[in-house]
């Protein structure tokens, strides 16, 4: 049964991840557009949403965000997109703990102290370290041009990024080998590679530079959890006549006379047609052209998909704790637990439950007042290891699936116990998500969390521009940008900017408007510094009174 929605909107956005919401917010504020956002899940936000079990709450994808210190350009954009009502808590100093079998290196929360700590530990590498930080800034500047190039014709984008292209496309491992003699220093410098999912042996130095550079001023977490990003942005969109609808799984994009004219979505087992002169997909390039576009359209994009290599998926162990982890010496920072210093060695393909490294952190310590306390262990996985259950139904995948999940959870805990013996005793509740979880709730290609691998092909040959070969169909999200919260945020700037004005002028307008809004807010508030609260704040974070949401499969 079909019916057509009579409400008219200026644009439809497929998917409510931060890239889609940011695009909608910016179009609403900058151009007065009424934007409809359609989300397949029962909650808005994509990987920024939270879920609960009993009294516990976890973030699914927001663990820390860089460049959220008050007044930074990225913070200005974030405040503009979300309406400026979000408080960002510092993770503290240090905010990263790189834990190796032989030694732990704690990363301070500002660049001068980071350099000083590295020079103190590796005094013979001082000149190389100073040059490294200069190179990081070069890559940050280069990636700004690369981003803007997403709004331009291919030839202009190529011209814009020609300067320092060789360094940008250089293999990260190659750069580190040339720059540093000490293998442990190379391991420390590259320890944040899971933030974009591609190890040094495969990644381009530009991705290392932009992601590592994003955390030179520490890490931050939104008070109330990642879900506040969607909640605040939704208000901005709806206050300007737009709408954000959940449980709308887009089945296909309507293309008439070569133009995108709307979408067909499934809601309560019925097909509903929504029409608008502009369609923007935040579902990823592969899903957009591999599943949503009719055959015969997007030939160029389909050729790109055939060349691409998917990035990793994840296993995540969500844990509720019996007591405050600070009693056992933990803090709000990230713990990166590595079994060895060589990030490039591949896991045994015959032992998919082998864990050589993981992320380990305590979300409740970043959200002061949240109790009971929680923790997460995250390790990369591949959907092929779970492929035998691809065609099974959610929550009915069978006992063998549950047994594999249990074995995987034990492997993750065993790895943590290598570094923190006795941690198991703190666990009151645990639940594992797998690559099938990602596929079920996001429909991501191969269950990836970052899209394609972050190599030189993602920078050039396989890059996803904002405009597509289908008229009036545009892309946003991390495919347009880079992995992570800020990557998705800035993709919204690029997509909205493309629709506002050509040749990067729309992007410039957004950035200037964000700066003006920041100055106005600072003047109104009188004391801008109060916007960032320390991680040890005693302010209570109210948990949403929503029903439990199933994310485990």
From TrEMBL:
Region: Disordered, residue numbers: 516-553
Biased composition (Polar residues): 527-546
Domain Amine oxidase: 18-498
Pfam families per UniProt: Amino_oxidase
Compositionally biased spans, kind Basic and acidic residues: 516-526
Alphabetic keyword roster: FAD, Flavoprotein, Membrane, NAD, NADP, Signal, Transmembrane, Transmembrane helix
Gene3D superfamilies: FAD/NAD(P)-binding domain (3.50.50.60)
GO MF annotations in UniProt: oxidoreductase activity
Domain of life where this protein originates: Bacteria
Entry's transmembrane regions: 12-32, 488-511
Name used for this protein in its record: Tricarballylate dehydrogenase
Species of origin: Rosistilla oblonga
